[in-house]
Amino acid sequence: MRPLNDWDSWVSSRLDRLSNRGLMRRIRPADRTGPRTVWSEGRDLVNFSSNDYLGLSQHPAVLAGAQRDLGKGAGATASRLMVGTDFDYQALENAVAFFKGTEAALVFGSGYLANIGAIPALVGRDDSVFSDRLNHASIVDGIRLSGARVYRYRHNDTQDLERMLREAGGGGRRLIVTETLFGMDGDLAPLTTIVELKNRYGAALMIDEAHAVGVLGPQGRGVAHLLGVDGDVDVQMGTFSKAFGSYGGYVATKSQWAQLILNSARSFVYTTALPPAVVGGVGAALEVAMAADYLRDRLNELSGMFRDGLAEMGLGSPDSVAQILPVVLGDPAKVLDAGRRLEELGVLAVPVRPPTVPQGGARLRFSVCATHTEQDVAGALDALKTVLSGAGAP
Ligand SMILES: Cc1ncc(COP(=O)(O)O)c(C=O)c1O
Fold it and tell me: In which domain, by residue range, is 104 found?
């Protein structure tokens, strides 16, 4: 039998390795002090790291929805298949299906759980999944759990996707999966071409609208609706944890597909349902989000201002079209250092390093929210200029 300190030395060597490569993560203490600021390590910081894109996590109607349903109990007490479904849960699923224009919707405990449950419910060992190389970890994990053969096409490269669809041959079913607004790059998937390919090669298409829902498209319905291809998408997945300011995930699809997912997605069947207060908050957030063109306009305006400011500095990505604005510096140590110095200047833009982004792609990821002010954006741009010119060095 191996002695326990073998384990201890393995753990500490793993940690040393992460630390030496500038890849160690830690959870920072950070108290929210308002819709756009956090108090962390002795400083008030303007938060450009949050995904609360519309500021709904603090919206009075959303808080009231959560408070109302808190009276039903602190927890859901079991899986929905064990204790049944509360009326509000069903109302939320009907509302999501209406919002997405699908026959049915199924609510999961989180977006992560939706992806790792829905993908293995739809494909298995004899099937093939075609996945954008920059897809989120929850998609990657869902594919792994399915056991399907995976073809990872170059990011947003529909020629590469088509080549793979052609070369994959005819055995089994085929599923294409892509994010629509990419969470770390802020660019859009070429969904119209992907839909053409899906139809040409007899594949199904699942999209992850985690960062787009609430933000893009009419009433915030997402990129598929923006481009008018939603009718050709088989599964629209999304989360309530970003623009809806709350928690939970969903898939919207045809009734029978939802029925199959309900029966076989392990992350639906074998986990406790969302607490009533979360369901109440999400239901209210959906209503607010659909009517919130003024917040989307504001977000768009502030994101444009930030994007233009970055471009003037020769920074940012020309492909980033929405509220997610990456500044890629490449080296993890450099990004950590820049993040630290930005904090000294009152700005929080958390460094994102591999494996969240590809090797060589470490970056500061700025996410603009509708609750920011013009001064916040101007201040962040000034701080970034100072930091990157080296003048912010202590
Ligand atoms: C593209 C994408 N999909 C899925 C998820 C998971 O969503 P959730 O945070 O609700 O688990 C995220 C969130 O980090 C994401 O960025």
Answer: 58-290
